[in-house]
Fold these 2 entries.
Entry 1:
Amino acid sequence: MTEMPKIFIDGEYGTTGLGIRQRLADLPIELCSVPIEHRHDIDKRLQMMAAVDLAVLCLPDEASREAVALVEMMESKRPRILDASTAFRTDPEWVYGFAELDPGQERKIAKADKVANPGCYSSGAIALLHPLVKAGIIPVDYPLTINAVSGYSGGGKKLIAVYEQEKNAPPFELYALDLNHKHLPEICHYCDLVQEPVFVPSVGNFAQGMIVSIPLHVNLLNGTVKQLKTCLKEHYFQRKNIVFVEDGLTRLPANQLAFTDRMELRVHSNNRNDQVILTASLDNLGKGASGAAIQNIKLMFGI
Ligand SMILES: NC(=O)C1=CN([C@@H]2O[C@H](COP(=O)(O)OP(=O)(O)OC[C@H]3O[C@@H](n4cnc5c(N)ncnc54)[C@H](OP(=O)(O)O)[C@@H]3O)[C@@H](O)[C@H]2O)C=CC1
Ligand SMILES: CC(=O)N[C@@H](CCC(=O)OP(=O)(O)O)C(=O)O
């Protein structure tokens, strides 16, 4: 009998880490753990990393950078790494863990030693924009606006505490109003955009779920509403985790896909076909984080 792959989740007691741990329970892998009281102990974590085939990092950016630098200095066998943070998503030495990006991306992930899991908002934005820009329908210099709302679990343990423990948590708030959100470089990079979109993220008083929505004026595109739909339908044909849906919805609840690992894409248009809103619905902790990580782990071990 062949041995099961060994995996250590650094940050396993955080929001994304816990989500991955729960999903791994169904897979043929051996999960190696550091006790909760030692979760910040770098020596114990490095010892564990030296003993496993894959280290999944579910840490803040700085802690991820530190852990990766230490792994790279290891003289013993190094584990492969899957990083959930923003730190390496546009780094050319890392493979971007968005399996549906292009044909061939799954193969790259399967062979990679270092995989960067995509950001939650970025996953929705890239799923919509990448195929449309690549097909030339959305010009690379289109003045895009990306609106998005996330459940509060998107901000990890700290934001969950604000929403679940403080009496005066807002029902809804805009944030990142300095127009410098950490997902913008990733979105521009993987959509080949030359004009940075205006990104308007927000958070609502619900735990999980996300909508990314992108309004478009059809007269500024190189294509029709029908061509937008056909392009997305063909790009995601027979994909399990991302589906293009044509159901004519005119309302879209933000928690529609909460507790799933799927993403749904839609093209909403008016009856003049001159305005469009593209939407991506997902769970920030599902396809936006832990669900995508599991997709990558399965690819990396051929499960
Ligand atoms: N939440 C989400 O929807 C998404 C999150 N991500 C990314 O995943 C990563 C983790 O986020 P999330 O799970 O939300 O965050 P959480 O704050 O919920 O969890 C982070 C975990 O890492 C631990 N930790 C923090 N600093 C260190 C350190 N220096 N050494 C060891 N452990 C440390 C924390 O410990 P302690 O228990 O002491 O706080 C906590 O257990 C982030 O990079 C985030 O950007 C990606 C996609 C979506
Ligand atoms: C609601 C909320 O705060 N969301 C986070 C994004 C989620 C996150 O931190 O992780 P990823 O970058 O890996 O997606 C934010 O805007 O910073």
Note: The first strand starts at residue 6 and ends at 10.
Entry 2:
Amino acid sequence: MSTAATPAAPAASAGSEAGSPVFSVDGLWKVFGPKADRVPGDPELAALDPAGLRARTGCTAAVRDVSFDVRKGEVFVVMGLSGSGKSTLVRCLTRLIEPTAGTIAIDGEDVRAMDRARLRELRRHRAAMVFQHFGLLPHRTVLDNVAYGLEIQGMGKAQRRAKAAEVVAKVGLEGMEQRRPAQLSGGQRQRVGLARALVVDPEVLLFDEPFSALDPLIRRDMQEEVIRLHREERRTMVFITHDLNEALKLGDRIALMRDGRVVQLGTPEEIVGSPADDYVRDFVRDVPREQVLTVRTAMRPASAVEAAGSGPAVRPDATVSEAIEAVARAGGPARVLDEGRCLGVVDSDALLSVIAGTGRSAGTEQSAGTELSGEAV
Ligand SMILES: Nc1ncnc2c1ncn2[C@@H]1O[C@H](COP(=O)(O)OP(=O)(O)OP(=O)(O)O)[C@@H](O)[C@H]1O
């Protein structure tokens, strides 16, 4: 299947090409400082740690040799501590920051080769950014703030207002169309920022720590909003956060950054269940494993008798926490059923050992299965 898409590919088309890359990033570097260009190509300089590089050259490598794909329809989270390079990396995707080396493609098109007009179109139509400081126009109403992107595109007033009203309702601000930003709460303002990015129907939404200034309850509301929008539209999203819980909650996959490098790229389950190194292990140490790891991690092969049984059943993507409930309620093992196929069995010992961190690692799946009928919970 071709991965080429029209510049303003509608979200509805995203599902048909699920899994193909929207952004492809290869060997990306961003070095700040004098004669930054020489760093990526010089193996000796490229191998220095941040302090060493700074001492030797006066440069900071904010992004170091990073490669990844953002797949169509996924929420791709870039996570890391302050200064790890998240914002620089995501700004490089649309060249809000010019990369020093490496390649970036969107739907196969070379972003680094784009001229100014094409770049403008990329930022306005294809990859819209939602910022933490949403930069709303204070004298404009909510409706006109949202319609602003369409105005820039040259859309007529009636049409852009109608479209803006639709998106204002979609983000839960119905009835507030005529308010000005100063008359809104922080969470509501963030919704306007989100609506403003959504109204141009971009192929990808880029979120730069959009919720970090919000209080915890409003933040949770906004996270739910993003999950809902993603579920409804399957729009591709790249989401920067330094908050591990937010990353685990929102991300289909997470790129964990440290000192400009991606130290691990994987699903929440892979990152929590199989940390790539001690840094990641330490990072995820306090995560409640039972809420992230799934029964795939905990199950063992089923005997023929167990597979044919009629006891409780759980889906393979059910969390360990959900499985504990099912097993506790039934007082015995539960079958793991995938569309009627028995993939294995989970029992209380296996579930406990996942919580204790002594179980099998994430991502290893049972391949054998038995066709069975049954409802998985
Ligand atoms: N314009 C610049 N000039 C020099 N150094 C920079 C510049 N912008 C960023 N840096 C440095 O690059 C590194 C990565 O910064 P970046 O803002 O990408 O990190 P971040 O992970 O997004 O941090 P935060 O969570 O605090 O926003 C930091 O060491 C930062 O000081």
Note: Residues 1-16, 362-377 have pLDDT under 50 and may be disordered.
